[in-house]
Design goal:
The chain is mainly alpha-helical. About 70% of the residues lie in helices and about 0% in strands.
C-alpha cells in the first residue's frame, strides 16, 4: 500500500505540463500494445492527413515510442529535462513553456514530413 501511495505522490509532484506530456507519451505508446489502436494509425503519414483528415497523426507521431528500452529512455528524458525547464527557465511562465513546446512540436512535424520520418526521433 505504501508503494502505491509513494508512486501517486511522485506522479502528483511532477509539474503540470510535464505530467501531461509524460502521461500522453505513456498512453499513446501503450495503446497499440494493448490492441486499442494500430501503430500504423499513429505515425506521421502525409497522405492520410490530407485526404482523410487524420489530424491526430500530427500529435501522436511525436508522442509515440515503441514499447521497450527506447520508451524508458525517452520517458526519463521527458521527466528529467522537462521538469527542470518547467521549474527553472519557465518557472511561473506556463504559457511561454507551452509555446516553446508547441514550436518544437511544429518543427518536429515539418522536418518529419520533409524527411519522410513517420515517427519523431526526438521527443
Amino acid at each position: 500500500m505504501s508503494a502505491t501511495n509513494d508512486l501517486g505522490q511522485w506522479y502528483k509532484s511532477i509539474p503540470k505540463i510535464t505530467r501531461v506530456w509524460f502521461t500522453a507519451s505513456i498512453v499513446v505508446s501503450f495503446a497499440p500494445r494493448l490492441g486499442l489502436v494500430r501503430p500504423h494509425n499513429l505515425i506521421l503519414l502525409l497522405t492520410p492527413i490530407i485526404k482523410n483528415f487524420q489530424i491526430w497523426r500530427l500529435l501522436t507521431a511525436v508522442l509515440f515510442y515503441p514499447v521497450g528500452f527506447n520508451l524508458l529512455i525517452n520517458l526519463f528524458f521527458i521527466y528529467q529535462y522537462s521538469t527542470r525547464l518547467e521549474t527553472s527557465t519557465f518557472n511561473g511562465k506556463p504559457a511561454d513553456y507551452v509555446f516553446c513546446l508547441s514550436f518544437l512540436w511544429l518543427c518536429n512535424v515539418i522536418v518529419g514530413i520533409i524527411l519522410t520520418m513517420p515517427v519523431s526521433i526526438c521527443g
